[in-house]
Amino acid sequence: MSVPIRPQVYLGSRAPNFKSSSSQGQIDFYKYIGDSWCLFFSHPGDYTPVCSTELGAFAALHGEFEERNCKLLGLSTNARDTHNRWLQDIEQITGSKVTFPIICDEDRRISTMYGMIDLRNFDERGMPVPIRSVYLIDPSKEVRLLHAYPLSTGRNTAEILRCLDSLQVVDKLDRKIMTPVNWIPGDDVVVSPELNEPRAKELFPNHRVIRPYLRLTPLDPDT
């Protein structure tokens, strides 16, 4: 069985809408996101070892994502009943209950639409196998971050939260700042190169100039 290849989603594109069965019933993607951010991520299949550890970790951090107005949505390639049995197993293994839905992408329609598949790997039916893709999608439905992990490498949940924090603080300050390497909330940020020095002094009076092209500034703790 083959799946038609469609253009992949790319950074800055509008995330395609879709309707699908999930572990929690039918989902309309746009209605599910609403006015929230969304972390949308894929798995190659149910009852796979690395995926089980990942879903348990995301479930444990669900409250952290909620505080950031970000909904979680997983995708795997099995039916609803199999999803729900697997999720019960994950709760027993990890101690964390998965309360967000998992898309049932049995025909690979959605994973192909989103470019989540690895065309070098096919299952026994000739269907492409999704890799570990990660998309952060903002409330306007724009794709703001893409990560792709091979099947052998589990995701880093702390890094995904860090990226969400970065995107949100940059948006809050109307993209007048950027975040440097290994930035976490509370660290200094980079003043945008698009701001001239007088404007930088006005907006960030405590900034310091390392080089004309590299200016760092602390942020107000409430930012």
Automatic annotation (TrEMBL):
List of catalytic residues: C51
The Thioredoxin domain, residue ranges: 9-169
Native source species: Zygotorulaspora mrakii
UniProt keyword annotation of Cell cycle present: no
GO molecular function, one term: peroxiredoxin activity
GO BP annotations, alphabetical order: cell redox homeostasis; cellular response to oxidative stress
SUPFAM superfamilies: Thioredoxin-like
InterPro entries from the UniProt entry: AhpC/TSA, Peroxiredoxin_AhpC-typ, Peroxiredoxin_C, PRX_1cys, Thioredoxin-like_sf, Thioredoxin_domain
Claim: Oxidoreductase is one of the keywords in the record: yes
GO CC annotations, alphabetized: cytosol; mitochondrion
Protein name from the UniProt record: Thioredoxin domain-containing protein
Pfam families per record: 1-cysPrx_C, AhpC-TSA
Protein family (similarity comment): Belongs to the peroxiredoxin family. Prx6 subfamily.
Keywords noted in UniProt: Antioxidant, Oxidoreductase, Peroxidase, Redox-active center
Main function: Thiol-specific peroxidase that catalyzes the reduction of hydrogen peroxide and organic hydroperoxides to water and alcohols, respectively.
Top-rank lineage group of the source organism: Eukaryota
Gene3D superfamilies membership: Antioxidant, Horf6, Chain A, domain2, Glutaredoxin
